[in-house]
Structure formats: structure tokens, C-alpha cells
Specification:
- The chain is of the alpha+beta class.
- It has five domains: 124 residues, Rossmann fold (3-Layer(aba) Sandwich); 143 residues, GAF domain (Beta-Lactamase, 2-Layer Sandwich); 76 residues, PAS domain (Beta-Lactamase); 65 residues; 155 residues, Heat Shock Protein 90 (2-Layer Sandwich).
- Helices cover 46% and strands 23% of the residues.
- It has 17 helices and 25 strands.
- The strands form six sheets. It has a six-stranded antiparallel sheet, with helices on both faces.
- Helix 2 packs parallel to helix 3, helix 14 packs parallel to helix 17 and helix 15 packs parallel to helix 16.
- The radius of gyration is 54 Å and the shape is rod-shaped.
- It starts with a strand and ends in a 7-residue tail after the last strand.
- The mean pLDDT is 87.
- The structure holds adenosine-5'-diphosphate.
- The site of adenosine-5'-diphosphate has 22 residues, from helix 16 and helix 17.
Length: 646
């Protein structure tokens, strides 16, 4: 049964009675009555009824005045008014003042009851709507808050995994944890290197004095429990203690776990005053934060160790005695260490990321850079400097980086080499005279008396050995002469002619081994500035080696390529080849490759040394490309004479 109270403001006691006895009471409403407008307003204020039935024509205050008075006092009790005249202005005015419904007089009980029920049910609907609106608002607020929390976690996650400044990251994490959990304080503890204690790494809103000295034992702390169990630890509804004298009402610790390193610390939130205790939802949200934090710490650690290694490497590179220049793939300088700086006599620091060619004046180095860029292969060269020093330079292409140039000062080695060469030359020279006389006497022996067959055989051995020694001495003297620059008058000469003569000279030797000797001379080739005899000697040595180190029936090809401003001559064979490890040394004096394939092949180890000396004296370079079992290609490059130089 309804218990609503209805205030009847009606000057006719008959109508009052009718309403109370026939409409309200039988339907369970309680009636309160006022006979005039003023009393009606007073009762409405005092009694706060659920509904007012208001006659429009009243003594003291009429119906409209009552409505106004209620409105002024912010009283929102639904009103049904009754009137005898259906005047549209009156009805509109009454509705404007807040009336909900009206009934024309005279009315029957049913008519009024219907109006009452309509108003109440409309009121209920409004109430329900208001309630629903309120609930919706609350749900919305909650969703918004959750969204903000997720957003905070997402933002932290993004920034945490990309920022490498650990201090910033950890402070941000703790701040976010406090915000997300609606906590008073937050902290992040990390395990020390012995894994026995936890020390404070970041904090939010914590007592500064406590924070400064906060260290707890893993074996004897709540945080330690989270570490040891590797699970969140939630303490609520008790006065827990995180350190002496620091009592908290509720706290939540989450372990920070890094793959392969295990648990490295804890992230915690604390309430000291607030009764609000942390929930499963907080554990869920803060776990995400804890995971991000662990990633961030690990990233920062890896970055730091990479940085330390990089810095060490850079220091080594910068301070090493060897001159080092690193350029990128566009020939811009990435690193030029102090030694390189000094070696190249550069003014000021060479601008990093500037084209190397703008800063490095040495022509040989520039040539090397160009060559490596063209061929993509390592280049070794001796680089003579204007101040008389000589450097051994190695330029290596490195994929994804560019080129690395390393130069060592070999001036003292060159000097030793010069002294040695001088010594060898002197000895060779001194040996030559007695050797010539021995050779003369050996040749005379058969003429001064009869020699038996065995003596003749021995004389032949002596003769052959003398020949080898003479050749060796000649080669040594040759190197010495070429190195010293004697015997090296240069003239413009047709290189094709020199090669052609050499090939014709060696053809019988190649034929004797059934080797194919291919040579396709170019019809027109500009001249080179050379000493034709020495150049011929170099080509002879290459051809002789090709024949010597290629099996019977093999193939040898000589070619000339006319480049821009230079010419490249190559002698290729499909012979025994040279192991990669030995290739750097074969141009050294007396160096011979000792292997099964070379057993029984006679040589002095001076042929290629002569080639190198001769070619370098012609401002050229010689190199080899070879694979054991497949063959070798010896090439040298010489500058060509411009037409007007001839
Ligand atoms: P050698 O008098 O021993 O031939 P060289 O100075 O001419 O001395 O050559 C040095 C070494 O290089 C040789 O002993 C040989 O092992 C290797 N070599 C030179 N040319 C060739 C080639 N065409 N094929 C294979 N190996 C070669």
C-alpha cells in the first residue's frame, strides 16, 4: 500500500472531504489539508508532502501565488491543480511555475485518482531516470579513472622502455604507481650486489630522512618476502613496519623480475594515514608497471655496459700509437685519432662528418680510398710522407660502417731495410769479382790439361751453382740499383711493345710445358713514362713465375686495360695459387712459399721483390689475387702519360 502524503489546498471543505475520503484514503494515501493559500505554503514547507492538490481560486494566496511561493523556496513537490475555468493563460502560467497536471472542476474521484497516479508514476520515472543518470555518471567516472590509469601505465610503459636515463625512469614509475593505486607514498627498492640487502632507488612523498637511509635486509623485511617468493605481497589492516619507526596502514610490494637475472628489486605503494587498502585491481595494474620497470632497468644496464665498452674502445682507438681514420660509406670522417692527426699534420681537428677528401691532403691515401670504394677489397700500401717518414697503411672496407684506415710508422724498419740492402749490395758487389774469377778459372780447367769424365761432371756442377749464385747476386744488385734510382732513366715508351717482346721471349718456355700463353695486345695505347728495361724485367719475372708455378698444359693470359689516366697490366694463370695467409709476404725479399706444390721449383725469392721495387719506382702499385688450386692474377697499375706530356 502506498504511504504517500498528499496536501490538499482547497477552500471548499466539501471538496476536501471528497478528495480525502473518496480518492486518497481508499487508495492508501494520507491526506493533509489547508483551507487557504498561505496555510498551504506553510504546510508544504513543514510537512514536505509527496504531492499537492491545489485549487487555483483560494483566499489569501491564490493558486498561482502558492506555486510561486513554493518555487521561490526551491520546493519541488509535484502539484496537480484544479480549476473551474479552463483558461489557457492560467494553465500555461501554472505549468511554467512547475505544476505537473491539472483536473477541471467538477471532477469525479476516478478522474482525480488517475491524475494522482499519473503524477506519481511520472515522478517515479523521473526518480528512476535520475538514479540511472547518477549511476551512469558514476560508472562513467569510474571508466574515466580506469582509462586514465591504463593511460598512465601505457604512457609509462612507452616512455620507460625508450628512455635510457634510469633515474628519470624510476622516479616516473614510482610516481605512476602512487597515482594508479591512489596511494600516499611510493618507493622502489633494488637488491645490492650481494643480494642480501635492498636499498632505496626512487621514492615519492616519503619522509626524506627515512628515504635517505632506507636499507632493509632481504631475510628480514616485507619487501624481502616479495623478493624471495617472487610474488606480490599485500599487507592491509595492520600497522606494518617497513623500517624502524616507519609504520604503515597498508602496503603493496611487487617483485621486479628480469629474464635470466631473476628478481632484482621491488616496487611498492604505501598508505600511512588513509584507511584505503590496496586491492586485486591495484596488484594487476602495478604488476604491469613492475614489468615495464624491470625492462627499463635491464635496458639501461645493457645500454650502460654497451656505452662503457664503446667509450673504452673509443679511448683505445683515440690513444693508440697507430694512426686510425674511420670514414663512413660516403667518405665522411667518423673518427680521426690523435696519432692520425699528427701523422697527417692536420691543422685543428678534422671536422667529423665532413668529407675525408676535404681534410686529408695525402694523395696516396686518397687513392687508396678510391680504390677500396671501387673494388671493395682491403688495400695495403706504404705511404711516404713529406717529412721523410714512411707509414704502412692498411685500408679495410667494413660493411655497414665504411672504411677503416690503420697506419703504422715503419720509418725505422725502412731504415733497417735500407741498411740491410746496402750491406747485401756491398757484399754482393764484393762477391762478384772473386766469383767472376772463379767462374773464369773453372771454364779454363778443361783447357789446361785432360779432365776425366767425373771431373767434367764436377766442373759442370760447379758451373751450374756458380750460375745460380751469379743470378742471385745480379738480382740483389738489381734491386739495389732500382731502389737507389740508378739505371732508371725514364722515357715515354709504348707499354704494349714491352709486353709483346716479353711474351715472345717466353713463348718457347710455355710451349715446352704445353701451356697456352694468351696475349691480345691493344691496338692503341698511350705511352707510359718508364724505363723499358726495368719494366721488361718486371714483366719477365711475372711471366717466368706464371710458367714456373703452373702445371704442364695450363693456361696463362696477359692483358692490358686502358683505364682513365692509368693502365692496368695483368698476368693470370691457372696454376698452383698462393694461400691467402702467405699473400702479404710474397713481395718481400727472399720470401718463398713452402708447400708440397713448390717442392723442387727453384727460385731465389727475389723475383717479386724486383717487380714491386720497379713498379713502385714507376709510381705504380702491384698486387695479387690468388686462390690455392685455382690460380693467380698478378696485376700492376701505372700512370699513363697525357697526350701533351709526350
Ligand atoms: P721465386 O724466385 O721463389 O719464384 P718470387 O719472388 O718470384 O720468388 O716469388 C715469391 C714466391 O711467390 C714464390 O716462391 C712462389 O711461392 C710465389 N709465387 C710467385 N708467383 C707465383 C705464381 N704465379 N703462382 C703461384 N705462386 C707464385
Amino acid at each position: 500500500m502506498a504511504q504517500e502524503r498528499v496536501l490538499i489546498i482547497e477552500d471548499s471543505s466539501e471538496t476536501q472531504q471528497l478528495l480525502a475520503e473518496l480518492v486518497l484514503e481508499p487508495n492508501g494515501y494520507r491526506a493533509i489539508a489547508a483551507l487557504d493559500g498561505a496555510e498551504g505554503v506553510r504546510l508544504a514547507i513543514d510537512e514536505q508532502p509527496d504531492l499537492i492538490i491545489l485549487d487555483m481560486k483560494l483566499p489569501k494566496l491564490d493558486g498561482l501565488e502558492v506555486l510561486q511561493a513554493l518555487r521561490q523556496r526551491d520546493i519541488n513537490i509535484p502539484v496537480i491543480f484544479t480549476t473551474v475555468h479552463e483558461s489557457p493563460e492560467l494553465v500555461v502560467q501554472a505549468f511554467r511555475l512547475g505544476a505537473r497536471d491539472y483536473v477541471m472542476k467538477p471532477f469525479g474521484p476516478d478522474e482525480m485518482l488517475e491524475a494522482i497516479q499519473r503524477v506519481f508514476s511520472a515522478g517515479k520515472l523521473i526518480e528512476e531516470r535520475d538514479q540511472l543518470t547518477q549511476q551512469l555518471l558514476e560508472a562513467n567516472q569510474q571508466l574515466e579513472r580506469q582509462l586514465q590509469e591504463l593511460n598512465a601505465i601505457y604512457t609509462i610503459g612507452r616512455s620507460v622502455t625508450s628512455v635510457l636515463d634510469l633515474n628519470r625512469v624510476l622516479n616516473r614509475v614510482v610516481e605512476a604507481a602512487v597515482y594508479v593505486a591512489g596511494a600516499e607514498e611510493g618507493l622502489l627498492l633494488l637488491l645490492d650486489s650481494d643480494k642480501e640487502e635492498l636499498y632505496l632507488r626512487a621514492a615519492k612523498n616519503m619522509d626524506e630522512k627515512v628515504a635517505r637511509n632506507l636499507r632493509v635486509l632481504v631475510d628480514d623485511s616485507i619487501a624481502g618476502r616479495a623478493i624471495q617468493s617472487n610474488r606480490p605481497v599485500l599487507v592491509t589492516g595492520e600497522n606494518a613496519k617497513i623500517v624502524t619507526g616507519y609504520l604503515v596502514k597498508s602496503l603493496l610490494y611487487l617483485p621486479l623480475q628480469v629474464p635470466e637475472r631473476g628478481v632484482i628489486g621491488v616496487l611498492g605503494v604505501i598508505n600511512r594515514q588513509s584507511e584505503h587498502s590496496f586491492s586485486e585491481k591495484d596488484i594487476f595494474l602495478l604488476s604491469a608497471l613492475a614489468d615495464y620497470t624491470a625492462i627499463a632497468i635491464e635496458n639501461a644496464r645493457l645500454f650502460e655496459s654497451a656505452e662503457v665498452e664503446r667509450a673504452k674502445l673509443e679511448t683505445v682507438l683515440r690513444q693508440t700509437q697507430d694512426a686510425i681514420i674511420i670514414v663512413d660509406e660516403n667518405n665522411n670522417i667518423l673518427l680521426c685519432n690523435t696519432a692520425a692527426h699528427a701523422v697527417l699534420g692536420l691543422d685543428g681537428t678534422p671536422a667529423l662528418h665532413k668529407a675525408v677528401t676535404d681534410d686529408i691532403p695525402n694523395q696516396t691515401l686518397r687513392g687508396m680510398l678510391a680504390q677500396v670504394q671501387q673494388t671493395g677489397r682491403v688495400v695495403h700500401t706504404e705511404v711516404p710522407l713529406d717529412d721523410g717518414r714512411t707509414f704502412n697503411a692498411q685500408l679495410t672496407p667494413i660493411k655497414g660502417v665504411g672504411q677503416v684506415l690503420v697506419m703504422q710508422d715503419i720509418t725505422h724498419l725502412k731504415e733497417l731495410d735500407r741498411i740491410k740492402s746496402e750491406f747485401v749490395a756491398n757484399v754482393s758487389h764484393d762477391l762478384r769479382t772473386p766469383l767472376t774469377s772463379i767462374q773464369g778459372y773453372v771454364e779454363l780447367l778443361p783447357h789446361v790439361g785432360p779432365v776425366n769424365e767425373q771431373q767434367q761432371e764436377f766442373i759442370q756442377y760447379v758451373h751450374d751453382s756458380m750460375h745460380i749464385i751469379t743470378e742471385l747476386i745480379d738480382s740483389l744488385l738489381d734491386i739495389d740499383r732500382v731502389e737507389a734510382g740508378f739505371d732508371l732513366e725514364m722515357l715515354p715508351y709504348d707499354l704494349v711493345q714491352v709486353i709483346d717482346d716479353a711474351v715472345q721471349n717466353f713463348r718457347p718456355q710455355a710451349d715446352a710445358k704445353n701451356q697456352e700463353l694468351d696475349w691480345q695486345p691493344l691496338s692503341k695505347l698511350p705511352l707510359v713514362q718508364c724505363n723499358p728495361n726495368r719494366l721488361r724485367q718486371a714483366i719477365d719475372n711475372l711471366l717466368s713465375n706464371a710458367i714456373k708455378y703452373t702445371q704442364e698444359g695450363g693456361q696463362i693470359a696477359v692483358s692490358v686495360v686502358d683505364g682513365e689516366g692509368h693502365v692496368v697490366v695483368s698476368v693470370a694463370d691457372n696454376g698452383i695459387g698462393i694461400p691467402i695467409a702467405q699473400q702479404p709476404y710474397i713481395f718481400d725479399k727472399f720470401y718463398r712459399v713452402e708447400s708440397e706444390e713448390t717442392i723442387g721449383i727453384v727460385g731465389s725469392g727475389l723475383g717479386l721483390a724486383i717487380v714491386k721495387t720497379v713498379i713502385e719506382k714507376h709510381n705504380g702499385r702491384v698486387w695479387v689475387e690468388s686462390k690455392p688450386g685455382e690460380g693467380s692474377v698478378f696485376s700492376f697499375v701505372l700512370p699513363m702519360l697525357e697526350a701533351h706530356d709526350c
